[in-house]
Amino acid sequence: MAKRELDKLDDLQYDVLKEIGNIGAGNATTALAKMLNVKIDMNVPRVELVPFTELPDTFGSAEEVLAGILVQLDGDIKGMMMFLAHEESAHHLVNALMGQASQEQTGFSEIEQSALSEIGNIIIGAYLSAMSNLTNLKIVTSVPYIAVDMAGAILSVPAIEFGKVGDKVLLIETQFGELDFINGYFLMVPELESYDVILSSLGM
Amino acid sequence: MGNMIKVGMADLNVCRYPDNLTTLGLGSCIGACIYDPVTKIIGMCHYMLPDSTLIRNNQNIAKFGDTGIAETVARMEKMGALRSRMVAKIAGGAQMFAVSAGAAASATMKVGEKNAEAAKINLKKLGIRLLAEDTGLNYGRTIEFYSEDGTLLIKAVGKELRRI
């Protein structure tokens, strides 16, 4: 199987990846809306090849505080999937789920972190199951891991993982939200070989 | 007041007094800071992976502990710093996501620890004394390295400022 160069993806291949992101995020947003019983809009995903050094800037600055939920992927597609939300949005999410205002002024209590990682787990799961249905590929996920910290620090984890093979990350970013209420991003970081698997599964 | 020069991820830089160096949001990466107290020349390398020899795609020397630290020292020497006077401080190497079990998972997640080890090994190889470190644990750090006296200021979310 000819290995595709990440730098040389053509427009059509980008569109396919974008559409996968779109469908996955659509499913995830629906899951979230059902869980919280609110209406949530989402935008068209952005698919971009970003040098990992610029990855934190996607979220404002490297020091911007984010809640990140990370799931490792195994099976036909290997890599990492992250759901990221700004601290304020993450608070909104947790409050909406728990049905009460947070007791914490800053940061998250243990139970809130646990709720947040479960939210992340559910919506990442919805994203991936849509992707799995579409591509007919098997995706196995790990348990969710959570971190609330500076964007640069959180994103160093996928950046390092990807840094072993290259200097760029394929960012499939979908933003969804109900006005300013909830804003979230999906970051899909498949291993290099997995792009081939994804594109091939769709006959590309 | 000098400039505060930003060092990105997988990046390195050197400067002399009154300029200073900073890097934002260090996670599992290491900020290796080297200081020559006489010339007040400082260098910083924000590397991501411990060892370039284990990776095939290794053109970016600032990405790795071994090549990154060596290059930082070489550039400082070019500016007039003396290796025998150099001292070092390191920060970062956190494990950002708590992982319970799984061999495959822990290898990826423990890169912070390996990065910190790499700093010590490579500094020793170059004969540079490690004065202080703030590494490990599970949180991100922003660091500022001051050329005036080699102070390393460490900021973290929800934590007190630390000086080493």
Alpha-beta classification of chain A: alpha+beta
Radius of gyration of chain A: 16 Å
**In what range is the share of β-strand residues of chain A?**
25-35%
Number of helices of chain A: 5
Characterization of this structure:
Chain A has 204 residues and is α+β, with helices and mostly antiparallel strands. Chain A has five helices and nine strands; from the N terminus they run αββββααββαβββα. The mean pLDDT of chain A is 80. Chain B has 164 residues and is an alpha+beta fold. Chain B has a single domain, classed as 60s Ribosomal Protein L30, Chain: A (2-Layer Sandwich), CATH 3.30.1330. Helices cover 23% and strands 33% of the residues of chain B. Chain B has helices at residues 65-79, 103-109, 111-125, and strands spanning 4-6, 11-16, 20-26, 30-36, 41-47, 87-92, 129-135, 141-145, 152-155, 162-163. The longest helix of chain B is centred in the middle third of the chain and has 15 residues, at 65-79. The radius of gyration of chain B is 15 Å and the shape is globular. Classes of the chains: A alpha+beta (204), B alpha+beta (164). Chain A binds chain B through residues 52-53, 55-56, 61-63, 65, 70, 72, 74, 106-107, 142-143, 145-157, 159-161, 163-167, and chain B through 8-11, 24-29, 48-49, 55, 57, 60, 63, 94, 96-100, 102, 104-105, 108-109, 111, 138-142, 157-158.
Question: What is the topological layout?
Answer:
The complex is a heterodimer of chains A (204) and B (164).
Chain A lengths: L10 H26 L4 E2 L3 E6 L13 E11 L3 E8 H12 L11 H26 L3 E3 L3 E6 H13 L4 E6 L2 E2 L6 E7 L1 H10 L3
Antiparallel strand pairs in A: 1-8, 2-7, 3-4, 3-5, 3-6, 4-9
Helix pairs in contact in A: 1-3, 2-3
Chain B lengths: L3 E3 L4 E6 L3 E7 L3 E7 L4 E7 L17 H15 L7 E6 L10 H7 L1 H15 L3 E7 L5 E5 L6 E4 L6 E2 L1
Parallel strand pairs in B: 1-3, 6-7
Antiparallel strand pairs in B: 2-5, 3-8, 4-5, 4-6, 8-9, 9-10
Summarize the structure in short:
The complex is a heterodimer of chains A (204) and B (164). Chain A has 204 residues and is an alpha+beta fold.
